[in-house]
Amino acid sequence: MTDTVDMIHEDSLPGHESELEPKPHWTPRYPGSGRLQGKVAIVTGADSGIGRATAALFAREGADVAILYLCEHDDAAKTAEIVRDEGGEALTFAGDLGEEGVAEKAVKAVIKKFGRIDILVNNAGEQHPDPEITGITEKQLRRTFQTNIFAMFHMVQAVRPHLERGAAIVNCTSVTMYKGSSELLDYSATKGAITAFTRSLSENLVGEGIRVNAVAPGPIWTPLNPMGGATEEKLEHFGEATPMGRPGQPNEIAPSFLFLACDDASYMSGQVLHPNGGIVVNG
């Protein structure tokens, strides 16, 4: 099922992974062990980057995957092919989850195809670097919050009636929430909201047997940075400031989402994992 998206960005987001060089690493590193056997997962922003790597790993672990994305149909089709090659069933759904009603339509499509939802990964996001706060337009501010945090509320509201005890929600926050970012003021603010949302939603749902956690990646090589307005100079040195001296790859982040989504993390809720190249943060 595909919704038409009429969107004007101030840059080239969301960006095609198929056009990115070098290509991000999405391939799961190890054989599956059935940790998600029989489960149905929704992964937003699954057409590329961390979302694609997470969808691939979930499928290898036995899950069927709904691939939600904005408008990069070729990338989403590739992710669906990856999921099927790993033995899972795939559904693709295009639409702006920040818009009212789109998440509900997506969830209805998932229920129609799979009949259940066990895992929600809220991964979709966007960023627009601005060195001066005065350069952030109201349109950009609304756009960033709509994609990064409004969409999470909409998705959780839509899936909530279908989640049973043992279900898991995993949100994608960011290292920028913890250490700040001088050029990503609106983006960092949304990531702070996501962390607070994760902790509060955990308190709200933990009594129902539904766990809510988050992952806070550091600099990861995905379309988000090169397509999101980063300068050539910044890209040349992307990730070098981490203690490990390099950016991470999507398949180095996906295992954190898997851990929090499966029963390995059955005693964890309201927590954040930090795959960030060795940056020490609080929380």
From TrEMBL:
Keywords: Oxidoreductase. One of its GO terms (molecular function) is oxidoreductase activity, acting on CH-OH group of donors. InterPro entries: NAD(P)-bd_dom_sf, Sc_DH/Rdtase_CS, SDR_fam. Residues 1-24 have a biased composition (Basic and acidic residues). It holds the Pfam family adh_short_C2. It comes from the Bacteria. The keyword Lipid biosynthesis does not apply. The keyword Oxidoreductase applies. Belongs to the short-chain dehydrogenases/reductases (SDR) family. This is SDR family oxidoreductase. It comes from Stakelama tenebrarum. The lineage of its organism: Bacteria, Pseudomonadati, Pseudomonadota, Alphaproteobacteria, Sphingomonadales.
